[in-house]
Design a protein that fits this description.
The chain has 492 residues and is α+β, with helices and mostly antiparallel strands. Among the domains are: 141 residues, no CATH class; 95 residues, no CATH class. It has 14 helices and four strands. The chain has a four-stranded mixed beta sheet. It is flat. The chain starts with a helix and ends with a helix.
Length: 492
């Protein structure tokens, strides 16, 4: 038990040491960023430190200093932008900076605070001019958009001027509402709906002459009736296909629960699901180890005699005499001897098998009639797969039975294709709507006619609205489509 505690303690010390080293390294990087005046990078590094060590006093102080430096440098950039003749850009940059200050909970001090206050005063002057221009141009919604966007300047600078302008703009908004309400809207239900929203924004409840909300539904459909005739298509999936097409229809601008009629459509096609089985011959390759005898050179050693002379001392004659003696030396020689070896050889075993060819395909075509125009959508997809099958098992040579790989799960594949076909239908309906209502009619310059067409076009959702729609909003309200929509949907 003591040993385990000791090991745990040692590991804890190591972890704490590593964390301390990592933190010290991060502090060093942050200080280096500050020295290089890379204040954004320094702030990001200090934030990273505080995420792992929220109580790090050095990081807290460092982050505050980095934020103050960012504010100071951005105010210099704001002043340069304004002095270059771009007061709009300067006001926008200043607004973003103030929002960052609120997020950081940091307020400038001293000279920096003076500079920010001075730039805010100048920004307020520019915004007052922009608001005055909006009133002169009779764009009360543009005024509202700008005043909401730059509200912080009106709260802190020249608030009375802002209030006076807002009161004047309210009068313009109400006046514009009543001007728009004077015409008859019997033929323009979509524009009437917009004018009602517009007037409500200014607190005016108006009754528009000739406006019948149900007229909006005259060219819309309350349901889809689709007939399906697809050869070899599983009966149990037909209802799913019909439901998928209905869901796609209900996501289109042609649908409304109060539509005047039912849209008729038909879907036809063919489902292919075939499998062919052809007898073939295959060859199984396997390996066996074979013993064999190889005659190889083997090095050996033997003793060979040789004669030599040696000196011997004759004690009688007291002289040295040479005597002949026989000696032996080692000698190497080679001889071929049989050696038993093993080698791996390849063998082949022919056997009968089956070639399995599988085909899964679906061809669909849809047809309907909207606004006296035939619309069509299609899908054509096919997957094939070939594999082999055998039933022979010969474990001694590694040959086992083999089942063919199955093609994609048939039901899942068909459901996926059904979804694709329905998306094609939805896209086709959207395109038909654009062709019917989202193309500018150059023969008419009438405000009500164009406005009704614009508003009807917007029943379809766009990432980027058509040009003639954008132009109508800019021309009549001085704003983009999304900006007007956001204003009218918000509580004033």
């Amino acid at each position: 038990m003591n040993t385990r505690l000791s090991c745990f303690g040692t590991r804890l010390v190591i972890v704490l040491l590593l964390l301390t080293l990592a933190c010290a390294s991060a502090h060093k990087r942050a200080r280096k960023h500050m020295e290089n005046q890379s204040y954004e990078e320094a702030a990001a590094t200090y934030e990273s430190i505080l995420r792992s060590s929220p109580g790090d006093a050095e990081a807290v102080a460092g982050l505050r200093e980095a934020h103050e430096k960012i504010i100071e440098s951005q105010l210099i950039q704001i002043r340069m932008t304004r002095m270059s003749g771009n007061p709009e850009g300067a006001a926008h940059q200043l607004l973003e900076l103030i929002q960052r200050e609120d997020e950081w909970k940091v307020q400038p001090k001293g000279k920096v605070a003076f500079t920010q206050n001075e730039e805010s005063e100048l920004a307020a002057d520019h915004i007052i001019k922009k608001l005055s221009d909006a009133i002169k141009s009779n764009f009360p919604l543009q005024f509202e958009h700008l005043s909401k966007k730059y509200q912080i300047f009106s709260q802190e600078h020249k608030s009375q001027q802002f209030k006076n302008l807002k009161d004047e703009n309210n009068k313009h908004g109400k006046s514009e509402c009543h001007r728009l309400a004077k015409t008859s809207y019997e033929q323009f239900p979509y524009l009437a709906e917009f004018v009602t929203q517009y007037c409500s924004y200014w607190g005016e409840n108006v009754s528009l002459s000739g406006y019948l909300p149900e007229n909006k539904f005259k060219n819309l459909f309350r349901d889809l009736n689709v007939s399906v005739s697809i050869q070899r298509y599983p009966n149990e999936l037909v209802a799913g296909l019909q439901l998928s097409l209905v869901d796609a229809f209900k996501r289109s601008p042609w649908f409304h629960s109060q539509g005047r009629s039912v849209l008729l459509a038909k879907t036809s096609g063919e489902h292919q699901y075939d499998q062919q089985k052809i007898a073939i011959q295959l060859v199984h390759e396997y390996y066996v180890d074979e013993r064999y005898v190889s005659y190889e050179d083997v090095r050996k050693t033997r003793q060979v005699p040789y004669d030599t002379y040696e000196s011997h001392y004759n004690y009688i004659n007291k002289t040295y005499e040479e005597r002949r003696v026989t000696k032996y030396r080692n000698e190497e020689y080679w001889i071929k001897e049989p050696v038993e070896r093993t080698r791996r050889i390849t063998k082949y075993f022919p056997y009968g098998a089956w070639k399995i060819s599988q085909v899964l395909g679906l061809t669909l075509s849809g047809e309907s009639l909207v606004e006296s125009k035939n619309i069509r959508w299609n899908l054509n997809d096919r997957v094939t797969q070939e594999d082999t099958m055998s039933e022979i098992r010969m474990a001694d040579i590694g040959l086992s039975p083999k089942e063919p790989k199955k093609i994609s799960n048939r039901e899942d594949w068909l459901k996926d294709k059904t979804s694709q076909f329905s998306k094609e239908f939805e896209g086709t309906l959207g395109k038909a709507w654009e062709e019917a209502y989202c193309v500018e009619d150059s023969n008419s310059k009438n405000f009500n006619y164009i406005g009704n067409r614009v508003r009807k076009c917007l029943r379809k959702e766009f990432a980027t609205p058509p040009t003639f729609v954008k132009d109508w909003y800019i021309k009549n309200f001085g704003l983009e489509v999304q900006e007007v929509t956001k204003l009218l949907q918000a509580v004033r």
